[in-house]
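> @MW can you paste both from yesterday?
MW: sure, first one:
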Amino acid sequence: MIATRRQIARAAGLVSVLFAISRLLGLLREIVIGAQFGTGATLDAYLAAFRLPDMIFYLVAGGALASAFIPTFTAALARSQDARHRAAWKLASNVANLILVVTIVLAIAAAILAKPLVERIIAPGFSPATVDLTVSLMRIMLIGPVIFGLSGLVMGILNSFQHFLSPALAPVIYNLAIIAAALFLAPTMGVRGLTIGVVAGSLGHLLVQVPALLQRKPRYFANFGLDNPDVREVLRLMGPRVLGLAAVQLNFLITANLASRLTEGSISAINYAWLMMLLPQGIIAQGIATAVFPTLSTLAAQRQIDTLRRTLNAALRAILWLTLPAAAGLLILRVPLIQVLLERGQFSAESTRLTAYALAFFSIGLVAHSVLEVITRAFYALHDTWTPVKIGLAAMVVNAALGILLLVPLAQGGLALANTTATTLETLALLWLIRPRIDGVGGRRLVNTLGRSLAATLVMSAALLLFTSRAGGLSPLVIAGAGVLIGAAVYGVAAFALGREELSQLRRTS
């Protein structure tokens, strides 16, 4: 079934609201964690311990699986002649069995090799005590990828059925579990209490989706299906996507490796800044990208390229219209926002300074990170996972090279700037390369939207700079709150005056 633009917009709105709740809970999670652990060595160990479990999940059962599974599963659903969708459920069962075996094997191997991996690759700048803490935390969190693997598959199945509510609720449950652990376990168990919350949250992430899955009357087949053409197609599509995500995860490892050589707390500061940037990115881009991906996949399967191009163009224009002012506002208001959200307990004024410095460079990349969410899915919908991989690998090299070059002069800010530069180049390259595949991307309309949004953003930025320059005596809460309201109001008025096309489109699709 192909969703209309109105249905996509409504789905995107629903997912965006739930993503906003999830991101806000994620921010609350960081507020609670930051108040207890600040930006010290203990939190650095906790964040470094995440790297390997995250890598296993994303490479085997995260974005790699979703990008390969959803187009293949939706195609199997579309060609199913029976109401029970036997071929589609056989594919889902085969993939679930493969995920379970592979993630268990990798988790066991990672647990065995945890110490040398931390000492030599993940955080060579850590002290011996911090290395030991990181290893012990990592071994607990390696349970997570096994559970998340199945949960990610269920999420892909439900999205293919145009069901977005339960998958969007899953991150909310995950964040609530970690918040509960931070509040009730961390005071007595320390940072190890957080790892219990991580594992419990991954289980909740899966269980909250099970009722919706059961409503689709799934069928289970107890085999791996390596002779199944659909399974082979998923594996074929996953191969290059795994390489692409490996590049992304290597970027995170490189960042952690380099940051471990800086002053204590640098890894934590970069993490806080990254999460602050991801808040608007998740609310805007991931909501739109999640809602539009199944439709792009179906349109590609049915070779409706003109409709696919128009759908992609509408999604990109919406992202540009919303993320440009968000990026500017985040850059200008970053210090009071961090003070209000994070500065309490062990999160000191120095922690705010370190985080705001990195966030200044991350915020510049918000637009590119957001556009990348949609443009890569367009390639996946076309069953082309190699092109994003090649560009992603090139971006990884750029990120690593710039990170090394900028580490000394700019410290953690240099690492953030390297990420922003590499992602911007990656996004521009993919936009250029998809044009011949779908007979253009509606470039004139994109440029018109970009011009109007940029002009309105400049007006908004001038108003915010004027306000912040005269608000020195006000509390951070007042500056941040009033700044957000002023920015939204000025941008809305300026955008309305410069052109009503995007506002009219939002009204039509609401």
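MW: second:
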Amino acid sequence: MKSPVIILGIESSCDDTSAAILSDRLLLSNVIASQSVHQAYGGVVPELASRAHQQNIIPVVNEAIKIAGIDKTDILAVAFTRGPGLLGSLLVGTSFAKSFALSLGVSVIDVNHLQAHVLSHFIADNPVEYSPPRFPFLCLLVSGGNSQIVLVEDYNKMKIVGQTIDDAAGEAFDKCAKVMNLPYPGGPFIDKLSKEGDENSFKFAKPNISGFDYSFSGLKTSFLYFLRDEKKKKPDFVKENQAALCASLQKTIIDILMKKLILASKHFKISEMAIAGGVSANSGLRKAMVEQGEKNRWNVYIPKLAFTTDNAAMVAMAGYFKYLDNDFCDISLPPFARIVI
């Protein structure tokens, strides 16, 4: 009987330190240590993030191995996020991955963080429910730093067909939340409050961008100026209309995202549709995907909430496919902050 391919995945691109163990496609463990220190600053502070990664990386990896019920000598390769992300944070994960692999005498596999989000749909944490997308499929990848439509022809063949020309959807959520004095990260708070408000209460600017690209800077400006003008008339406007503002803002962002995804689906004649990334946890977006799926006869793939945020399970999954292709990296390769699929 063929022995399983056991991969250790390490993710440290932003402010979550994560380690996961994968046995072929079966997820054995996925440990995440989040950082609360950034909440006081209204955003991630790179220096604080890298220091926290240094504190968390060894305990997190040790816990992942323990939960998986394996010995570290069972690991055949170490997959790590090489980019994109915060360079200081990436350095911690990259340095540990290389050192750990050297100590075991195994190969290292560099993983594109964005590709890993897309491939999170192939994680088999529950074999009974395992039902990944069929190639080719379109994936709407939305997070704090990215808003892209990705054409996925195979696990190692992806092409960005649409992307934001300025701000990302997650960034729009967080920055609009900040002007309403909501805690960081603002996206989850907007999602929660939107359930209590009328999404048709207010109208905000929607961009008119050609092709499948996105733009969210105009919406952000429109929202800021709208609040400024209304607060001049009534100082307590935001406080009194918070839920309605959140619901209307969320609807606008989702409408923008879905319009281009529908266009792409028709253009490429593809009905296999997926979402991924941090914003794919948004309840409104998940609902919109289901509704559009029924309307357009799509096969819709929505990730489990555990795989929407930055996590090492998706890194291990991407690493597994590269392992099958014998696609290993030289140990001298450095991490870098900006990278495309």
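> thanks! Strands lie at 6-11, 17-23, 26-33, 77-83, 107-112, 137-142, 147-154, 157-163, 272-276, 299-301.
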